Amino acid sequence: MMPGAMAKSTENHSQALFEKAQRLIPGGVNSPVRAFRSVGGTPFFTQRADGPFLFTADGTRLIDFVCTWGPAIHGHNHPEIRAALQRALDNGTSFGTPAPAEVEMAERITRTVPSVEKVRLVNSGTEATMSCIRLARGYTGRDKIIKFSGCYHGHVDSLLVSAGSGALTHGSPDSAGIPDSFARETVVVPFNDIGALQTAFAANDDRIAGVILEPYPANVGLILPDPDYLDTLRTLCDEAGALLIFDEVMTGFRVAAGGVQEAAGVRPDLTAMGKIIGGGLPVGAFGGKAEIMDRLAPDGPVYQAGTLSGNPLAMAAGNASLDLLEKHPPYDGLDRKAKRLREVVLQAAAEKGIPLQIPQTGSMFSFYFTENPVRNDRQATAADREPFSRIFHFALDHGVYLPPSPFETCFISTAHDDEVLERAAEILVKAIQAL
Ligand SMILES: *Cc1c(COP(=O)(O)O)cnc(C)c1O
């Protein structure tokens, strides 16, 4: 068994399942970061999840800080989402025609996300960003896209360049299988560097269709924009005639109901969404100004489609998830809880003389073992990774599941109550003390 593998149960179900999975599924996983490559050890298999907990195939209970990588803002298996799904299930699983729940979802999104007048539903965040790019190109008649190093937008060909997260910890920032000619249409600039963006615009005048970014990059750990950075981006895009595209797949309905665009007061032209809006089922969406969205087929020349788009089960879970957020806005409470956890862990690191940064906004935070605040992916990847692997494994051995990479963001949900978080804080403090 590899070092750090979970060996709580004598039967060790996860180990056996992983061995079998590796024979059947590349790397044994259906999404690379799940394989624990950047922290070492064998991934555990989850049998069921409830509230803030995962229950593993090995019979252990873990406090979950991954929250299915973003969607589970209400925790796992929320009774209202489950009930909505059960009601929808009685009516059939897919219609292939328009259905009322899609209109409800579109209404919820357009009334909540400030810049979105019209929205189209898709099945994943990747589909949403891919469609934003195509629409920006179709609308402007230009080819080039500017993206920021360390920003992840799903596994879209032309966006899988300097893309952080899984691509980063697997040492392949540019995936094999992407033609150079595609990547050449993507201009990459560092985040939080206005000068670099101005230079990129100047070098490609009148050829930039759009600028896409995670307004709070959260796939190289969590990076927050400098004050006024997003405002300046808006101005530069307007001057260049390029569309500003916010990838709010992670931040949408999480940092505020209306995402970063509400929190920071900056209006993009197009927005990609996903994760929370599916309530745990596969959903994505993209939207923006009606004038731009109307360029999509069947009204316009930009083709985009999906057999299962707007699926009734996914809509039921998503509408229930958004309804809960509207009825009981959780944002202040989540921010207070995450700040408390952050303070306790920072205190423990300070007492031990360990340099640690914990950037945090609302329910999102990450760990960088470094002296100074991190402003871009270069500084993020320069931080010491080894202490993270050690606290990851210490936490896992003591019932707390952190993301299995220093470049992923931790999440808490409304199901993480004070008691659960105090327990988790205790374990994280011990993990720091044991470094
Ligand atoms: C998760 C994520 C995506 C990709 O979404 P998938 O549903 O995994 O395809 C895109 N952008 C951001 C910012 C994300 O966090």
Q: What is the annotated CATH architecture of the largest domain?
A: 3-Layer(aba) Sandwich
Which quaternary structure do these chains form? single chain
Low-confidence stretches: 1-7, 168-173
Fraction of residues in helices?
25-40%
CATH superfamily of the largest domain: Type I PLP-dependent aspartate aminotransferase-like (Major domain)
Number of distinct beta strands: 14
What class, by secondary structure content? alpha/beta
Total count of domains: 2
Amino- and carboxy-terminal Cα gap: 23 Å
The description of the largest β-sheet is: 7 strands, mixed
What top-tier CATH class of the largest domain fits best?
A: Alpha Beta
Would you tell me the overall average pLDDT?
A: 94
What global shape is seen? globular
The DSSP helix count reads: 15
Walk me through the structure.
The protein is of the alpha/beta class and about 425 residues long. It has 2 domains: about 15-65 and about 330-435, Aspartate Aminotransferase, domain 1 (Alpha-Beta Complex), CATH 3.90.1150.10; about 80-325, Aspartate Aminotransferase, domain 2. Helices cover about 40% and strands about 15% of the residues. The protein has 15 helices and 14 strands. It has helices at about 15-25, 80-90, 100-110, 125-140, 165-170, 180-185, 195-205, 230-240, 260-265, 290-295, 310-325, 330-350, 375-380, 385-395, 420-435; strands at about 45-50, 55, 60-65, 120, 145-150, 185-190, 210-215, 245, 270-275, 285-290, 360, 365, 400, 410. The strands form 3 sheets. It has a 7-stranded mixed sheet with strand order 4-10-9-8-7-5-6, with helices on both faces. Strand 8 (about 245), helix 9 (about 260-265) and strand 9 (about 270-275) form a beta-alpha-beta unit. The chain binds pyridoxal-5'-phosphate (PLP). Pyridoxal-5'-phosphate (PLP) binds near residues 125, 129, 214, 247 and 250.
